[in-house]
Design a protein that fits this description.
The structure holds two protein chains of two kinds. By secondary structure, chain A is mostly helical. In chain A, 83% of the residues lie in helices and 0% in strands. Chain A has one domain. Chain A contains nine helices and no strands.
Chain lengths: 232, 231
């Protein structure tokens, strides 16, 4: 049942995002293709594609994040919960599928964002950029740690908001407001707890700690959600 | 054993009691009208039976067991909410149901789509409210469930079509299955009920076989409201 549901959820979230993924990648490769050509038309085309790529990268941060958040909110707590919560599936399994789809979607969007970022800002395509980094081990290590640090910070924001959603929907009124408030509070508390024990520099240990906090929030959210919810 | 047994069920929203110590027994093979004014607690009761709400106290037993995966497979619930994935078309949503419900009859559902004039390849978000209602009804009646729960069916379509469709629905449902219907359309539904349950302010105020009633259902409901919203 889990994989059937996972297939539907993944398709439903990502089918609309494919157009965004493809257009961002194509635009960023057009920027590379235009190179340092002195032809006026090509310079103009490169400028347009660079601008559009920047807009696309902004959307790659905002749209997948909003989409997975809204998917969980609507499927598990709003009208679509009348469909999903009446399926012969355990609530925990529903939660697992939605969270896994969200995490994968965010990873895909961040990989595409990384590719576009390299293409647009390095002036070299992502493949030669990566091969250059591979030649310089200390460079790649720092870059990977930097990217992972940002990604896990987003994952912590996401898991805090989802946990906030679960607690907010245990209430009878003002569910959206309290979901957001609880989400922000959970994020701040987790950050304070982590900061109390460790200095959050960009290093592997801090990444590990944030991922550990994600897992704790996931287990807590799954447990509370499995106990039941009040759907509007 | 009763099909559905509700014992001392209470649901509070803050200090407001939406359901107050409700006790009910639903037997097999009955068509039950769940009636009451707006805010009487009908939808709250149905949502609790479908585990869409957490009860404040009390219990619900289905075939003698607590609610769970088995009851979800055996209860077919049609809500008046717009719960279908709007990006799917009718055939895709049928396949979705076929994938998850063991008791869903896909071929029968395809036949109903034709019978009820539902466009198979039209996206749900492009469908009219009436067509969506019909599609939701098809999804429910294409399942072989022990209990069908229908909350305000087909309110968005014209009375003649509605009567035609509901007539089919009542004929198609297995004689051993039970059906709980909430409706404001008493004129059309009154004649099919075996039993009525009337809720008022969260309490069961009447639970009787229709054949034992001395007055009409409408006149019973008048007692519970100054404004007769249901007719």
């Amino acid at each position: 049942m889990f994989w059937k549901l996972f297939k539907y959820d993944f398709k439903s979230v990502n089918k609309d995002l494919i157009a965004l993924y493809i257009s961002c990648i194509v635009l960023s490769f057009v920027v590379i293709f235009c190179g340092n050509n002195s032809n006026d038309a090509i310079i103009a085309a490169k400028k347009v594609c660079t601008d559009l790529s920047l807009v696309g990268m902004f959307f790659l941060v905002i749209i997948p994040f909003s989409k997975v958040y809204l998917k969980i909110r609507n499927n598990l707590f709003r009208e679509e919960a009348y469909l999903y919560l009446t399926l012969p599936i355990k609530r925990g399994t529903l939660y697992d599928s939605k969270v896994l789809v969200s995490v994968l979607t965010l990873i895909i969007s961040w990989i595409i964002l990384g590719i576009c970022f390299v293409n647009v800002f390095s002036g070299k395509n992502v493949f030669s950029f990566v091969s250059k980094l591979l030649d310089n081990y200390t460079g790649i290590e720092n870059n990977i740690v930097f990217i992972l640090t940002i990604a896990v910070q987003f994952s912590l924001i996401f898991m805090s908001l989802i946990t906030g959603l679960i607690f907010g929907n245990k209430r009878d009124h003002a569910k959206d407001l309290f979901s957001f408030v609880f989400g922000v509070l959970i994020y701040l508390i987790v950050r304070l707890l982590i900061g109390f024990f460790y200095d959050l520099d960009n290093n592997i240990i801090s990444i590990g700690i944030v991922l550990f906090a994600d897992v704790i929030l996931y287990i807590l959210g799954r447990y509370v959600y499995s106990k039941g919810v009040n759907v509007d | 054993m009763e099909l559905l047994e509700i014992n001392h069920l209470t649901k509070k929203y803050g200090s407001f009691k939406a359901l107050d110590d409700v006790n009910l027994k639903i037997a097999k093979g009955k068509i039950i009208g769940l009636l009451g004014m707006n805010g009487a607690g009908k939808t709250t009761l149905l949502k609790l039976i479908n585990e869409l709400l957490i009860p404040t106290s009390g219990e619900i037993l289905f075939k003698g067991k607590k609610l769970g995966i088995e009851s979800k497979n055996d209860i077919a619930y049609l809500s008046d909410k717009e719960y279908l994935d709007e990006n799917m078309n009718a055939v895709q949503i049928l396949k979705f149901y076929n994938d998850f419900y063991k008791n869903f009859n896909y071929k029968k559902a395809l036949k109903y789509l034709d019978e009820f004039d539902i466009e198979k390849n039209k996206k749900i978000y492009k469908m009219s409210k009436g067509m969506k209602d019909k599609l939701k009804l098809v999804l429910v009646i294409s399942r072989s469930a022990s209990l069908y729960i229908i909350d305000e069916p087909l309110t968005a379509i014209d009375p003649i079509t509605r009567e035609y469709i509901l007539d089919i629905v009542f004929k198609k449902i297995d004689k051993n299955s039970s059906l709980i219907v909430t409706t404001h359309l008493l004129n059309e539904m009154e004649k099919v009920f075996d039993e009525i349950i009337v809720l008022d302010k969260g309490k069961v105020v009447l639970n009787k076989e229709v054949k034992d009633l001395k007055t009409s259902i409408k006149s019973i409901l008048r007692r519970y409201s100054n404004v007769l919203e249901t007719v």
